[in-house]
Amino acid sequence: MGRVAKPRPGPLLSWYDQHRRWLPWRARPGEEIDPYRVWLSEIMLQQTTVKTVTGYYTRFVSRWPKLPALATAPLEEVLQVWAGLGYYARARNLHACAQTILTQYDGQFPCDREALRALPGIGTYTANAIAAIAFNEPVVAVDGNVERIMARLLAVEDPWPTAKSRIHAQAQALAPDERAGDFAQALMDLGATICTPQRPACALCPWQASCQAHRRGDPETFPRKPRKREGLLRRGAAFFVRRADGAVLVRTRAPHGLLGGMTELPTTAWTPAFDPAQAIDEAPPLCLADNKTATWRQLPGRVTHVFTHFPLELVVYAAQVAARTPAPEGMRFLLPEALEEAALPSVMRKVLALAMSSRPSGW
To answer: Same domain, yes or no, for 22 and 171?
Structure first.
């Protein structure tokens, strides 16, 4: 076999000029680049597809077109608009980051990568993406797409995560002094549309002549990743309490950790050792008239949801109470219109859907 040519920025940039994706957060040629929109899109795109992000991004910039508007919005409102996008720590960090930039940088994004990395929710990848795209710094934002491209270009045999440092260094070595932002976005587009995980379109790739995996004929086998271990199934119970006026009992989760700051129906702990026989012991302590106790009914079916590190299965118990029943300490009742606007994560909307579809007539 002949020697494989070293990849150069030129062919990739020429391809990008003809085939770039037109995304709502991406400035068109000749338009001024807004660091706020670059940052917002990059935070939303972490672990999330372009298709899913597009609608959320559009709603965010419509509601908060500039950073000061987002920074001064209540966190609860930000979480409401984010609800359903997942990985809710991103929303909390987004709000904290906007506030930090407003107070410490007078609302202007710093262009220094170290200063960017010091901001809430911004790691190496996001700092590099903002620096390259918004400020044309000659750096590469290396995400999973770029790691895959580099692993194939070099036919890296080392398994993950051993190969990461080499791949990241090689990617940074490719960054051009000119058009650094376009180069960074071209790599993103190449990984999303050509150098895909399965069935890469090698015949259309501008770096085909430089790709060692293509020359070998096995690009789909790169990068060499160990088999992912799935987390243990966790189980629990959720409690649907509906007053006669239609209000539903909810509470706010702790501000940090999984689904931090989001609204939820009361639940038991989520654990692999969940005991259904003990579930009612963790039900909300409702204060009913005449010192009566709530009548709980287990609803048919299960709610299943998969988080990043574990799958979850919930049984749902329901109780109907009088219109003037007070909420237990740390909880509150929300009427249907307020519930619709609440910052409910997807798993809680699944619980509500099961409860509303299973409730007896007259509830």
So the answer is: yes
